[in-house]
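Severity: low
Component: inverse-folding endpoint
Summary: output formatting inconsistent between runs
Steps to reproduce: submit the following structure tokens with default settings.
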């Protein structure tokens, strides 16, 4: 293929020289032919190099496309296989599927949200907790049959509850372990950036209606969190959790333990409408609320603690202009020269800002009129 442009270039150069250059001396004609061959060879060589380079580029692009397609097929196969394992009746196989999905998400950031969605969907599937965890609430009634009469329809196979509990706790751990943050940003707007390779940024959680056992979300950051109708058995620890986006907890239930939100950060809307905190105190000590708040219609059987909590004065009113604090609590501005109180051990205790409040934050305090 390289010979063709060389021959064509040489022929063209010689023809042009013989046509437009008038020589009569045979020696000059020979020199003219040599010049023509030289020009033709050079021109043809350049053309050949251009063609060869273009061919090489096309080959490389084709190889990259093939490699990319092969990588995507491999990812799809790994994802499909791991997802299929979650449907196994063997706990060990389900655990292997969880760890395979975690490894895939860690290696491929584009797959992280999809894989988190799968893990959340698994936790949203119906689960009958062990008697020691159920606390006697919302337990399904036993199936009743008359002697010698078969059931009207075949019962679905059930996983061993103790094994399933292990699998579900593993799924919980995988999700929250990759949302861990070491640095707590106490400024508004947020300034900190995270570089931990194990951290998965921008994740949205949909755990609506999920049954979560001994749930720990301490020091975690998430973009959006949906816990609507979730059932927290054994309590839920959200100490220092950071919700950069909306956080939904309406109709959630906290059973057998407290809802613990010590030092939590709520970046936008936070909704606890009809949430039931049971008989334990709901702890929001040192929490920060940067948007609209709906806490009034929650059930606080053991009371609620908002000591040293603060809220952003100029908040986004797209979802309402009036915050709803629990009965017995109000929002007020700090007095001149008054410093924002800090919960012992909370994020503000580690803040370097010792100056009086500049009017950007308001304080959540007990309503004295309610106490009198």
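Observed output (run 2 of 3):
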């Amino acid at each position: 293929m390289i010979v063709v442009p060389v021959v064509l270039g040489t022929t063209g150069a010689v023809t042009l020289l013989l046509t437009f250059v008038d020589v009569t001396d045979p020696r000059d004609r020979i020199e003219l032919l040599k010049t023509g061959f030289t020009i033709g060879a050079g021109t043809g060589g350049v053309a050949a190099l251009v063609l060869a380079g273009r061919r090489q580029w096309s080959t490389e692009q084709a190889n990259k496309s093939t490699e990319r397609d092969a990588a995507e097929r491999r990812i799809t196969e790994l994802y499909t296989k791991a997802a299929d394992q979650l449907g196994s009746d063997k706990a060990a196989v389900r655990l292997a599927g969880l760890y395979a999905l975690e490894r895939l998400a860690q290696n491929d950031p584009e797959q992280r949200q999809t894989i988190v969605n799968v893990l959340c969907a698994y936790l949203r599937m119906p689960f009958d907790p062990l008697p020691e965890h159920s606390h006697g609430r919302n337990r399904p009634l036993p199936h009743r049959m008359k002697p010698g009469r078969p059931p009207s329809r075949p019962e679905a196979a059930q996983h061993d509850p103790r094994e399933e509990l292990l699998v579900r706790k593993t799924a919980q751990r995988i999700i929250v372990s990759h949302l861990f943050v070491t640095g707590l940003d106490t400024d508004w707007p947020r300034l900190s950036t995270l570089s931990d390779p194990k951290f998965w940024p921008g994740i949205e959680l949909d755990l609506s209606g999920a049954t979560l056992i001994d749930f720990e979300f301490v020091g975690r950051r998430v973009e959006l969190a949906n816990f609507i109708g979730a059932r927290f058995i054994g309590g839920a620890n959200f100490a220092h959790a950071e919700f950069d986006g909306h956080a939904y907890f309406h109709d959630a239930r906290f059973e057998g333990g407290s809802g613990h939100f010590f030092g939590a950060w709520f970046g936008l809307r936070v909704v606890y409408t009809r949430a039931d905190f049971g008989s334990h105190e709901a702890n929001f000590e040192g929490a920060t609320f940067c948007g609209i708040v709906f806490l009034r219609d929650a059930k606080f059987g053991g009371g609620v603690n908002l000591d040293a909590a603060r809220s952003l004065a100029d908040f986004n009113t797209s979802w309402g202009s009036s915050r709803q604090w629990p009965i017995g609590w109000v929002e007020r501005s700090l007095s001149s020269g008054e410093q924002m109180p800090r919960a012992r051990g909370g994020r503000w205790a580690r803040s370097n800002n010792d100056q009086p409040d500049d009017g950007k934050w308001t304080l959540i305090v007990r309503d004295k009129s309610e106490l009198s």
